[in-house]
């Protein structure tokens, strides 16, 4: 009877993973008809290596922006010079805001000044490491024309080096834990769009000046004033490569997100994700335990445990294709499971400590 209930429980949790994946719609393909001026705002702190890719992609857009403003956030790697050299046919303005004051985060301070220097009716916020496809701005503005408010897109996670495959669960769980689509109340900072009028109405980035995950709190401001907040997957329209600086940068980045954003996830979704994760963790343990004689509730027979392991491996393989370039790591998913748990434990310690460090700056988690 114990084995029967265990199998039923694992089946339910496995099916829950598919249900959660249904709430991950991609940015629809559509055409914008509006004739409003568009400003693209790019905060950049030590992004000399990634910025040229973004600027080259913007110069190839079907719908060309009227201006592109790169905000050099106290970089030490020549970001401003790279931005000017990479201008090409774009109308690029490079600005450098005053020194960061108390009570502000670097990104919110940079974008606050970027908006002040802009003139567009529509404000598009893009992180410096994003890589939009030629149709991206066309799709983005078309959806904003229909939805209004604050609209954002989570880029497809492009990976190159083996260590980047370890981010599998972070990329997937972070999206499964929220509901996407129209009026979902969630925003993703790498790619956002708003009208200037709505942005000023909610108080802009000044209203979330001290927030490390400013996108989530900015979304709350729009909702509080009755403005819609929508979010989509980037799929084939926009990508980025997270943490190309190495494994240590990746750990610091995920710790920052864990420590500052975990409390913002709505509990029904978090409960569903935790149930699915518990099934995944069991599947990660059961086959090695059966093979090596480790402690295991239920049968030690290889066949049933291999079936459970394989079912979750195939699920990860199919679901992760929606959010990023993950391949062989899905077949040995106990490794990213261990990495996920390790980073989570470190994030708890940093949360208790009251601060995290990112890009040479210290941010409060409380």
Describe the structure.
- With 366 residues, this protein is of the alpha/beta class.
- It contains twelve helices and twelve strands.
- It starts with a helix and ends with a strand.
Give a short synopsis of this structure.
By secondary structure, the chain is α/β, with parallel strands linked by helices.
Give the N-terminus to C-terminus distance in angstroms: 47 Å
Helix count from the secondary structure assignment? 12
Shape: globular
Gyration radius, in Å: 22 Å
Largest sheet: 7 strands, mixed
> Can you write the helix and strand succession as a string?
HEHEHEHEEHEEHEHHEEHHHHEE
Q: How confident is the prediction overall: mean pLDDT?
A: 91
Low-confidence stretches: none
- As a percent range, the share of strand residues is 5-15%
Give the spatial strand order of the biggest sheet: 3-2-1-4-8-6-9
| Computed structural class | alpha/beta
Number of distinct beta strands: 12
Binned, the helix content reads 40-55%
């Amino acid at each position: 009877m114990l084995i029967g209930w265990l199998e039923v429980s694992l089946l339910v949790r496995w099916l829950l993973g598919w249900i959660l994946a249904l709430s991950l719609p991609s940015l629809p393909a559509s055409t914008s008809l509006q004739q409003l001026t568009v400003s693209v705002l790019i905060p950049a702190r030590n992004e000399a290596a990634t910025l040229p890719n973004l600027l080259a992609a913007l110069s190839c857009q079907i719908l060309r922006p009227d201006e592109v403003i790169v905000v050099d956030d106290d970089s030490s790697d020549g970001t401003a010079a790279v931005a000017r050299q990479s201008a090409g046919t774009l109308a690029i303005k490079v600005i450098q805001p005053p020194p960061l004051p108390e009570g502000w985060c670097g990104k919110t301070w940079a974008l606050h000044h970027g908006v002040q220097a802009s003139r567009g009716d529509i404000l598009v916020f893009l992180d410096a490491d994003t890589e939009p496809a030629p149709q991206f701005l066309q799709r983005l503005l078309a959806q904003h024309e229909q939805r209004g408010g604050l609209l954002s897109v989570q880029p497809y996670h492009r990976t190159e080096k083996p260590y980047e495959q370890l981010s599998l669960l972070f990329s997937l769980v972070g999206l499964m834990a929220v509901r996407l689509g129209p009026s979902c109340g969630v925003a993703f900072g790498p790619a956002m769009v708003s009208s200037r009028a709505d942005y000023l109405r909610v108080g802009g980035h000044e209203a979330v000046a001290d927030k490390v995950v400013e996108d989530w709190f900015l979304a709350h401001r729009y909702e509080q004033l009755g403005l819609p907040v929508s979010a989509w997957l980037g799929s084939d329209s926009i990508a980025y490569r997270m943490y190309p600086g190495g494994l240590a940068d990746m750990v610091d980045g995920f710790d920052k997100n864990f420590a500052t954003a975990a409390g913002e996830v709505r509990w029904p979704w978090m409960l569903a994700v935790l149930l699915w994760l518990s099934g995944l963790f069991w599947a990660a343990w059961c086959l090695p335990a059966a093979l090596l004689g480790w402690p295991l509730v239920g049968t030690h027979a290889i066949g049933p445990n291999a079936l459970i392991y394989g079912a979750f491996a195939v699920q990860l393989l199919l679901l992760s294709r929606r959010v990023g370039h993950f391949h062989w790591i899905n077949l040995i998913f106990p490794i990213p499971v261990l990495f996920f748990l390790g980073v989570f434990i470190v994030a708890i310690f940093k949360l208790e400590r009251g601060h995290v460090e990112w890009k040479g700056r210290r941010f409060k988690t409380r």
